[in-house]
Amino acid sequence: MVIIMKPEFTGKQLENAIRAMEEGGVKVMISKGAETTILGAEGDSSRLDEERLTQLEGVERVMRVSEPYKKANRKYHPDDSVIDIGGGVQVGGGALTVIAGPCSVESEGQIVGVAQAVKASGAAALRGGAYKPRTSPYAFQGKGMEGIRLLLEAKAATGLPIVTELMSSDQIPMFEECVDVVQIGARNMQNFDLLKKVGRMKKPVLLKRGLSSTIEEWLMSAEYIMSEGNNQVILCERGIRTFENFTRNTLDLSAVLAVKTLSHLPVVVDPSHACGKAWMVEGMAMAAVAAGADGLIIEVHNDPANALCDGAQSITPGQFSALMAKLHPMAQCVGKTL
Ligand code: PEP
Ligand code: MN
Known about the structure:
This protein is an alpha/beta fold.
């Protein structure tokens, strides 16, 4: 349930409304927006007396929220959330934020070289996996801690904030110290215990949509993180499993519109994992921007043919530069700054 305050409410009236909600057994989340102040009930709101709350002074109206996600719900927070990822970079709020880099960190030359190239083309952040969730235990599993060290070198060389996947709670203290954005991969989207622990971190989280997850399940995973106090969640649409197997996954661009209506959280699109084909990345990246995405996360590799992971969907730094040039007018067209 949410209480929408009248525009001219007083401090005393706000206090009374909060107390009345707390007496009904819920915690209160206050959202002070540009136009409205909203009090959102966190927890079981079945004991709240809607009629009594409606009659309180300073209260404009009371609304039951039927969706199971609350903190992620736009009804609780009408204004778009803007997430600061460090280095002066923001996701949401009118920016088109492009994150680029290889699937996996492979060597110092590779990650620093790609970081410099994507930065020169206008990328705002660097991606690169150090811990890789591979289908086969015999496939390259990532360079682990050494990969994180190399990402930090690339960050030192370019100033780009780093985005990398967290696979296990053992990695949390090290990620808290070294990483700018904690990626939760599609395969861990419903690892609820991990989500709760990430919810206690102080870092922004890029939450990828699960392989076959509904929009509601995805938002409930965001809710897990937010319910522990971490509101810095960036959603990432990366394609879902369908019967179609020409592409690696099916990019669900309608989800971008859905989620931006249902939630205040920013959404970025990963055309690389969605399509699995490098030649499709440009077209789908453009389409994602047209659909209203707040950003893109794109796999870029200096030598895709010899990449240790996801070479087929990786574009070269040259192709990335050409894509960025095309994204500028596209961003302008939808009123975003790139
Ligand atoms: C990745 O970003 O390299 C990755 C493994 O993505 P996803 O979790 O979307 O498959
Ligand atoms: Mn990948």
